[in-house]
Amino acid sequence: MVTVLSDLAQHVAKGLRQTPKAISSMYFYDDAGSRLFQQIMELPEYYPTRAEFSIFREHGAAIVAALSPEAGEEFALVELGAGDGAKTKLLLHELLEAGRPFTYVPVDISEGAMTGLVAALRQELPELQVAPAVSDYFTALHQLRTRPGSKAVLFLGSNIGNFHPAERLSFLSQLAAPLAPTDRLLIGFDLQKDPRRIRAAYDDAQGVTAAFNLNLLTRLNRELGADFDLAHWQHYTDYSPLNGAVRSFLVSTRAQQVHIEALDETFDFAAWEVIHTENSYKFTLPQIEELAASAGLRVVTAFTDAETDFADVVLATQAE
């Protein structure tokens, strides 16, 4: 009998067989992980969410003008990974108040998250035209190519920083491919700053980030029948100002074996061996311009908060 492994099981099998061991941060977000991340965003050390909110509050009207078609025709505001839409609601209010004709197209692979967002929007902004898409990013964007009118695509937060450099360029190139010359792309970039502040944002004093990272092992125990003993694992993070990379790890505090029932396999861990779980790159504005050019895009304008902690960058195709 052939056993069909889940995507998670296949990913874990590949990640724990390699050296160094690694599991993608995309698997942080089960229900408990999502709740913990909501707590992280409220921590005093975690500046990115507050910084982006301040950008939208301070520059909302200018951002709307930069994203909207000049001729005033109807367009689609497409948000990749919409989540709860908290920050986006600031832009939606600005668009509605400005009388811009548009349809909001939130894209998320989670049907549950999408249902909750649409219900909240119908209650808070009943006049808003919403066309939700439960899909992966690129399928949704390619389907929108046949839709009349232009598009403004949002990829908010600092999610772009979770990609390795080669993956980041590939991702941006794929985002650029379906864009027409009049379309716009708004991406959030966490900027380089005091290295101590950056590191503290990923290793807070209350230990919420540690719980968020360790919850990944709890998920593997629950969903794959693993037997990780969390008492013998710890969270560790570092930041390199040389390449702008925050790296997060789960560290085995002793030599141990972990059996994963779904894989029918046992994995050996040496004392202080790590599982690499996340990258979060920080950028400079010149690096963003260089990255955009490599992906066939150009920077139209960039908005930063007062402390220059974060940038929301409007991009367009190089041909216009």
UniProtKB/TrEMBL annotation:
GO terms for molecular function: methyltransferase activity. It comes from the Bacteria. GO terms for biological process: methylation. Residues 9-315 form the Histidine-specific methyltransferase SAM-dependent domain. Keywords: Methyltransferase, Transferase. InterPro entries: EgtD, EgtD_Methyltrsf_superfamily, MeTrfase_dom, MeTrfase_EgtD-like, SAM-dependent_MTases_sf. This is Histidine-specific methyltransferase SAM-dependent domain-containing protein.
